[in-house]
Structure formats: structure tokens, C-alpha cells
């Protein structure tokens, strides 16, 4: 029996609130089960048509200019950090590190023996620094949305930067759910297991002509690049609607399914509004709560897709454990941050009304845990009174 039993009337219709891998809708799971695309060669028409559909729908969703390209490869965003290290940074880069994933890219570049030491700008957890034009920097990199902390940063060109300096944006937990002017970046890259309601194993990159030129320039320089991270191979194969390595076809299928759903419902504006609705329900609740507080205090920096909530007077681990026992999954805080908090995804696949139900469930669990704690403390006091009576 669950430690805390949540009444069925309070439970959300779907209890998946993970920040990644995220909720794959049941309709998408059922559609894959009825498809014959799994188990066929990625060089054959069915999978190439699927890749072509994904690329075309991304062009539409992100309103891509004609000269931008949709490039894809195998391995996820972390693999793209290495691909960018090999194929996009000419000599020296600047990184904004305000969470786990921005710091990972900076670490990858810092470890490359063929590149100069990067500049890394950091800020206090729950905030983000701003890029600063710097001589000798040929690539500026940061996350649009830090999945680990729930901090969102603007996507924009760097004032005063060199004309040929690239802007590289990690959009993994923002792509398809937050406002974006893609022309403010040269590479906007992401994996599909967040707002695109798919699974891991792929990366996508929306590349400007300048980014494509940089890839070609570095390839021509003679720099050794492993084939798995070679962006010239990724470009060449993407233009043929395929990947260089065998892709996770199920991830492609679910990405295509989610893109179609988003476009059918109104595209990026609709998706943005849906996520803002969901996240505002959480922020509004936390601001009124006597035990919860938004971790990101500046509303202008609060993510609309990954909401982090600090708890006081109750252990977040106990709350998330009780929720899990009742079928509400993956609301634990990011382990590397080490805070007493919950982290809740509000991606477009998640119903805003389920977010409201989640809030009611959290309140119910906290109330029950608090009553239990008071009972234990009272029992302890009474026991000490018996064992050590007043003289």
C-alpha cells in the first residue's frame, strides 16, 4: 500500500511529468504499433520519406528561411557538443554556463587539444549570464533553456561580435515550445525527447549559411574528425533525407507524429501558449504557497517548459516518492543541483489540466506528510516524558 494514498479524483489523467525523456503520448505509441516502418533499412524509401517529412515539418514549425538547412545525426545533444567542437569552433569559443548542459559543452571544447582555451561565463544558480563580445572569439554558445535549473535565456546575436562569429544555441528543452527567431542563431540544435515528445538517440540542427560555410572551411583545413562527429557527412546525408549511421527509427516516427500534432493545432504560437499556460499554473501556485517557492525568482528568466520549485519544511524526496507510488512520475529535482526541490516538465504533450491536478496532489501529499511528521514528533515527546519524568 502506498505511503500516502492520493484520492483518485485528484490524480492527473497521465502522470508523466519528466523533463526528459518526456511523455510520449499514448496516441503516438499506438500509431507506432500499427506502423510497418520499424525493421526496414534506413536507406530505403519508407525511412527516407519519414526523415523528409520530419525535415519539412521542422522548416514549417520554425519558419525557417530558405537558406537555412535542417541537419540531423545520431547520438543526441551531448554527441552534438562533440560534433560542434570538431566542426564548428575554428579556434576559440565563449560559453555561458548556468546549468549542467552549457557546462558540458564548455568542458568538451576545453578538452580539445586543437582549440584554444574557451571563455566560460558563469552565474549564480537560478540566473543566467549574458554573452559579451570578445576579441578572438569565433563561436558564442549557450542554452536557450537549461533543463537542469529551469532557467531560460534569450536567443540573440552578440552585440559587437566579429562579423563571422557564430551563435550556437542548445534548444533541447525549448525547441518547439518557446518563441524563437531562428535567424538570431547560426546553429539551433536539439534532441527530440523533450518538447517534441519523442525518444533519445538523435540530434537536429537548424543551420545558417554561415554555419554551413564554417563546417566546410574546417573540413577543408585538414583537421582530423571522426566520422561519427563529421558534420560534412551529416549535411551530405541530411540532404538525401537519411543519416550517416543507422538512426533510432522509433524516435524519428514519434518526432514526426508530434510535429504534425503541433502544426495541426496551430504551430509554434499554439505550442508556446499551451506551455505558458501550464507553467503559469505551477508558478502561480508556488508564489501563493506557504511551503513552495519558484527557484528562478526573476519571471523574465523562468522557463515555460521546465519548472523548478524549492520546498521548505518538507523533504522533496519524500514528496516525489509518494507521488511516484501513486503513478505520478519523474518530478525529482536535478541531482547535480543538490537542492530540496521539484522539477516538473510542462512540455506541449502535457495537458495543462493535468498540471493543475498535479498541484492538488502535491498539496495533498505535503499535508499528509506534515501530519505524519507531527504525529511522530508528538510520540517522541510523550515517550521522552515517560522515560525521563520531570523531577
From TrEMBL:
InterPro entries associated with the record: Aminotrans_V_dom (IPR000192), Pser_aminoTfrase (IPR022278), Pser_aminoTfrase_mycobac (IPR006272), PyrdxlP-dep_Trfase (IPR015424), PyrdxlP-dep_Trfase_major (IPR015421), PyrdxlP-dep_Trfase_small (IPR015422)
UniProt keyword Disulfide bond, yes or no: no
The UniProt record lists the keyword ATP-binding: no
GO biological process: glycine biosynthetic process, by transamination of glyoxylate; L-serine biosynthetic process; pyridoxine biosynthetic process
Annotated EC: 2.6.1.52
Transmembrane segments annotated in the record for this chain: none
Entry's Gene Ontology molecular function annotations: alanine-glyoxylate transaminase activity; L-serine-pyruvate transaminase activity; O-phospho-L-serine:2-oxoglutarate aminotransferase activity
Keywords tagged on the record: Amino-acid biosynthesis, Aminotransferase, Cytoplasm, Pyridoxal phosphate, Pyridoxine biosynthesis, Serine biosynthesis, Transferase
EC class of the enzyme, as a word: transferase
Cofactor: pyridoxal 5'-phosphate
Location of the Aminotransferase class V domain: 141-328
Biological pathway: Amino-acid biosynthesis; L-serine biosynthesis; L-serine from 3-phospho-D-glycerate: step 2/3
Family, similarity comment: Belongs to the class-V pyridoxal-phosphate-dependent aminotransferase family. SerC subfamily.
Functional summary from the UniProt entry: Catalyzes the reversible conversion of 3-phosphohydroxypyruvate to phosphoserine and of 3-hydroxy-2-oxo-4-phosphonooxybutanoate to phosphohydroxythreonine.
Family matches, as NCBIfam families: serC_3 (TIGR01366)
Identification of the protein by name: phosphoserine transaminase
Native source species: Mumia zhuanghuii
Upper taxonomic lineage: Bacteria, Bacillati, Actinomycetota, Actinomycetes, Propionibacteriales
